[in-house]
């Protein structure tokens, strides 16, 4: 507990003091809007499971419903939910007051980097034993219920020690979105199968007053870049890159990845870079709806995010994995997934493990999908989708031959002055400068190699 308290105090200093004095303490949500049941001595042990997490794009109705079912299945258990859009700001003062949640739903990759910091400080509990637990109400283990590959990544197993610390949650394929009324067989533009074919569409697009490409912000290149590394170098090459292997990042193979991205962003819509920020990213997404750009990298949340936006006549969402690097080559779609974990100091760690196991049940997975559209990485996920379900378009990408890329960088010590993978960091943030011509692809690549070299050195000290 002392470690996690000290850790969160340090996070507060790193992020800044702006939250001081502005804390809003909302009462924890009780599922179903009911009051916390009073104790009934002699009947069941009264336990409270505290779950804290992000109130994000999926909302929180599904959390409420799942928590209510878990309570019904476990007499004497009360689930307290604290779900906020600024969850990191809410949690810091609570943890400083020695009030550590039992479960945290905060994925890696968020600006506050709370989860990454907890991992670096070894303040996340080992949950490998959950994989061998039976899914409540079913005869299958959690490990067998989870889609293969999801617990073999550097996100779920950040230390490379063969143990699982983060449980994979809602997942969604990423790739290129487009207007299927404009792109496809017999349409104005053929759907490209290779990057060469993709780039060849640029001249036709220009002649039609459109641009080949746009992106919401540079942060959206993480999934694109990781999938492309798999295409160019293969899965083993990708895994080496994610361990900050300097030789891998310095290689000609990796240079090819950078070159492809560099050429692609040279075909940007003219307004892309100016709008590639938190205030203007939806304007870049609108370019696709207006047929002003043909392709945009994004995830399955995009159609919902732009649901009420105007669009060109005949517009229909289309989705594809990245084009192959060469004819007949592998095509990849990076699978983004969220995570939950048990922080060090959790008072109800065993109960938290039971809740994690329940999340993979058909009962919970179906509730989650019906209430939010979020898909759990379970082998039965497709059974919740009808043939008319628009999600079939996205989740069938792997049925159409694309391979799944998963995972991210291995946990590494912080290096002063080195920000590699945030949305404004060296690897992705520099793409704006490459797009405008302020930096060359070679300069960008070398800056990344220099950053990786520093991080690798810190890991070996």
What does this entry look like structurally?
Residues 22-45 are annotated as: Disordered. Residues 30-41 have a biased composition (Low complexity). Residues 1-19 form the signal peptide. The chain is of the alpha/beta class and 461 residues long. The protein has 2 domains: 2-166 and 341-386, D-Maltodextrin-Binding Protein, domain 2 (3-Layer(aba) Sandwich); 191-335 and 412-460, Periplasmic binding protein-like II (D-Maltodextrin-Binding Protein, domain 2, 3-Layer(aba) Sandwich). The protein is built from 19 helices and 9 strands. The protein has helices at 2-15, 61-73, 87-96, 114-120, 142-145, 195-207, 221-233, 235-241, 246-250, 252-265, 272-275, 281-289, 302-305, 349-359, 362-372, 391-395, 426-429, 431-436, 441-460; strands spanning 47-54, 77-84, 103-105, 167-179, 211-213, 293-299, 317-320, 332-340, 403-405. Strands 4, 5, 6, 7, 8 and 9 form a 6-stranded mixed sheet that branches. Strand 1, helix 2 (61-73) and strand 2 (77-84) form a beta-alpha-beta unit. Helix 7 (221-233) crosses helix 8 and helix 7 packs across helix 10 (252-265). The two termini are 27 Å apart. The relative contact order is 0.16.
Q: What are the secondary-structure elements, in order, as H or E?
A: HEHEHEHHEHEHHHHHHEHEEHHHEHHH
Query: In the CATH scheme, what's the topology name of the largest domain?
Result: D-Maltodextrin-Binding Protein, domain 2
How big a fraction of the residues is strand?
5-15%
In total, the number of strands is 9
Q: Gyration radius, to the nearest Å?
A: 23 Å
In the CATH scheme, the class of the largest domain would be: Alpha Beta
N-to-C terminal Cα separation, in Å? 27 Å
Number of helices: 19
Q: Poorly predicted ranges (pLDDT <50, ≥5 residues)?
A: 5-27, 32-40
The name of the CATH architecture of the largest domain is 3-Layer(aba) Sandwich
Helix/strand class:
alpha/beta
Morphology = globular
Mean pLDDT: 90
Outline the biggest β-sheet.
6 strands, mixed
CATH superfamily heading of the largest domain: Periplasmic binding protein-like II
Number of domains: 2
What is the helix content? 25-40%
Protein name: N-acetylglucosamine transport system substrate-binding protein
Organism: Proteiniclasticum ruminis
InterPro entries: Bact_solute-bd_prot1, Bind_CPR0540, SBP
Pfam families: SBP_bac_8
